[in-house]
Amino acid sequence: xxxxxxxxxxxGQEIQDNMFVFENLIDVDDRGxxxxxxxxxxxxxxxxxxxxxxxxxxxxxxxxxxxxxxMLKDDLEAAAPAKLSDVEASQKxxxxxxxxLADAGEIMLGGxxxxxx
Length: 117
Fold this sequence. Notes:
mainly alpha; Annexin V, domain 1; 0% strand
């Protein structure tokens, strides 16, 4: 990846964007989701979740306080329609935060594979 990015930064970014998409956050463990949620604004999360499937939404809700999850659910139901491009941009920003946390060793992207005891 580093060599591709050195030759063509835009291509490297596009490949990286397609390797890990917003729906892949479902594979991040609960502790990782909690770390991610601390770094993301509620408004950004609200917009990004509009395009998410129910399983991912539920994973995020279960990693929030009950009150915060209920408020977010209510906001999702009451929110006006948003442009798909805005939703995708918000999802991309959250993925950038996730990659930064992964690079810092704070979360594991892609399910990790190894179990710890």
